[in-house]
Amino acid sequence: MKIKYFDVTRKSREKEAQIEAEFFTDLDAMLAISDCVVLATPASPDGKKLINKERLSKMKKGSRFVNIARGVLVDEEAVADAVEDGTLVGVGMDVHEFEPKVNERLKGLKQVTLTAHNAGGTLET
Asked: Which pLDDT value is given to residue 36?
């Protein structure tokens, strides 16, 4: 697997070299070439959706999307549209836009796996 990443803060060149990661300054450019995108970021203070219809339209046809960040960062109706039009062939979400309510369209799509966010439910915590 080749690792491509976008972040507000770039990791050190040494860390990138250890795992052969490539940093992108443009999220849309990274989305356009990625086979699988994992969203792992804090929620935006302004409540803005990071993954929306426009961003999903820039993703590679046949790609996968996983949200382990915050449900409010993703427009779930746009994700359902992207699954139905073949842009996304697989989706995994353990956080949901309107928690605890789960999107009905996503529940009905076989390409989508939905789970409950339970990172705080480990023995260590």
From this structure: 98
Supply 12's token pair. 């050190």
Give the active site residue among 55, 70, 76, 97: 70
Domains in the chain (CATH in brackets) are: 35-116 (3.40.50.720)
The pLDDT averaged over each successive group of 10 residues in the chain (125 residues) is 94 97 97 97 87 97 96 96 98 93 96 82 63
In three-state secondary structure terms, 48 is coil
Distance of alpha carbon 125 from alpha carbon 121, whole angstroms: 7
| Residues pairing with 74 in the sheet | 51
Catalytic residue among 14, 54, 117, 124: 117
